[in-house]
């Protein structure tokens, strides 16, 4: 049976009706899974993601509406059709108002059910339209997690339009990978995907990188330079770590998003641009807004649709899948014939905390492959690779935080806790310096105490 056929989960404690529905829907060309309780359905959804759920209303234990509420909270893009022998028009209206896709009273006509199913699946990305197949736009996202599948469904839905997307997630979860997948699923996929890390480029260079500059705009500008907005024309510009963008540039970015024009540094002419913006951050931007370090008006421009990628420890069912994917990749790179990880080694990987997420897992697998001298990777090798990774892996963001805090402590010590002098020494205005102190929870008064 082809995996390209839509998969439907049927939930009913009437085994005769359940069997009849399985026969009818299988004959209609669908892949069908059947369970006899709402609780069993929730267990199934923990490990697999169908395109549609059809549930009876009255069942022993949890009823159909309670099942729908659970599904709607966890997988809001998954359509649900409810069947009931006790249907009334008010019940149907209430159910649809709460988000149920369809509501059919028993006995129902098979053609009516199939029509409802067909209508529901029209709203599920990738089922009716095959313009962007799963093998293409999401090929680099390796997962069997139901949460990730729901996130990918949202990603494909948002890819159909031009709405700005803000991706939240910790370092190493794959934010740029998701952004690229949205671009590949969109109508802009024939045009460039351009990415920039706003935290990795000095403030004085970031404006030129984004908007470009003209010859003579500043010392060293020996020729005109196209910015990333122009290079991404017709496509997608991915602004990684947008929460680290300086306030002055936030103002200029907001103007570009509003006017759809960029003005290169040193130029008096504006250039029209047609670019979709996808941004990402590990920061809590609402907290940054409250602290005065991020503009609220820019936030609402960027956060039209928000997607949050779960950390690796919240999708442990993906760890064996990712591990084997990286194993195959690095076995080819290092020209080694490695069959896999021992059961004990895999258990260590699955139970680890993974503060560095997928990126850290990839580094551990590469180190194991590089150092392996046997066809099976042992738990000792995994332990050593993970231990060294914990010692050596320090993200750019963590390193910067460590430096910033140490620097602030140093200037406060030098000035005896005098914030005005410390801000002057750091070449920052007093308000900005206070915000930095609040970010690192540093109390200037502590540094005013005499040393004993």
UniProtKB/TrEMBL annotation:
GO molecular function: ATP binding; DNA binding
GO biological process, one term: phosphorelay signal transduction system
Boundaries of every Sigma-54 factor interaction domain copy: 141-370
One Pfam family cited in the UniProt record for this chain: Sigma54_activat
UniProt keyword annotation of Phosphoprotein present: yes
Post-translational modification 4-aspartylphosphate, affected residues: 56
Response regulatory domain location: 7-121
Domain of life: Bacteria
Keywords recorded for this protein, A-Z: ATP-binding, DNA-binding, Nucleotide-binding, Phosphoprotein, Transcription, Transcription regulation, Two-component regulatory system
Protein name in the entry: Two component, sigma54 specific, transcriptional regulator, Fis family
Taxonomic source organism: Nitrosospira briensis
């Amino acid at each position: 049976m082809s995996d390209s056929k839509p998969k439907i989960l049927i939930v009913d404690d009437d085994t005769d009706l359940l069997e009849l529905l399985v026969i009818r829907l299988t004959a209609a060309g669908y892949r069908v899974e059947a369970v006899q309780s709402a609780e069993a359905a929730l267990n199934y959804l923990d490990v697999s993601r169908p395109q549609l759920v059809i549930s009876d209303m009255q069942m022993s234990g949890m009823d159909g509406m309670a099942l729908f509420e659970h599904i709607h909270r966890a997988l809001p893009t998954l359509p649900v059709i409810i069947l009931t022998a006790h249907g009334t028009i008010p019940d149907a209206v209430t159910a649809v108002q709460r988000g149920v896709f369809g509501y059919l009273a028993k006995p129902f006509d098979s053609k009516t059910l199939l029509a409802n199913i067909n209508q529901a699946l029209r709203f599920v990305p990738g089922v009716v339209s095959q313009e962007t197949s799963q093998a293409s736009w999401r090929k680099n996202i390796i997962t069997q997690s139901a949460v990730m599948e729901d996130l990918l469904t949202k990603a494909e839905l948002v890819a159909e339009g031009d709405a700005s997307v803000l991706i939240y997630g910790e370092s190493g979860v794959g934010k740029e990978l998701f952004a690229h997948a949205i671009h590949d699923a969109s109508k802009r996929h024939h045009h460039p995907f351009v990415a920039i890390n706003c935290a990795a480029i000095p403030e004085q260079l970031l404006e030129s990188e984004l908007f470009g500059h003209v010859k003579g705009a500043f010392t060293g500008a020996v020729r005109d330079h196209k910015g990333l907005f122009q290079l991404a024309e017709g496509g997608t510009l991915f602004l990684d770590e947008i929460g680290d963008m300086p306030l002055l540039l936030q103002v200029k970015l907001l103007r570009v998003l509003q006017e759809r024009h960029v003005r290169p540094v040193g130029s008096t002419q504006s250039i029209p641009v047609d670019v979709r913006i996808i941004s990402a951050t590990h920061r809590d931007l609402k907290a940054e807004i409250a602290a005065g370090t991020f503009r609220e008006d820019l936030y609402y421009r960027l956060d039209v649709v928000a997607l949050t990628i779960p950390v690796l420890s919240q999708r442990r069912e993906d760890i064996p899948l990712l591990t084997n994917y990286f194993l195959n990749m690095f076995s080819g790179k290092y020209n080694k014939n490695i069959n896999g990880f021992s059961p004990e080694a895999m258990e260590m990987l699955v139970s680890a905390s993974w503060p560095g997420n997928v990126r850290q897992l990839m580094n551990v697998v590469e180190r194991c492959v590089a150092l392996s001298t046997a066809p099976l990777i042992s738990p000792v090798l995994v332990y050593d690779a993970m231990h060294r990774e914990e010692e050596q892996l320090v993200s750019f963001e963590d390193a910067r935080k460590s430096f910033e805090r140490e620097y602030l402590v140093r200037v406060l010590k030098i000035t005896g806790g005098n914030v005005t002098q410390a801000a002057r020494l750091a070449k920052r205005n007093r308000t900005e310096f206070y915000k930095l102190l609040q970010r690192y929870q540093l109390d200037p008064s502590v540094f005013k105490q005499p040393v004993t």
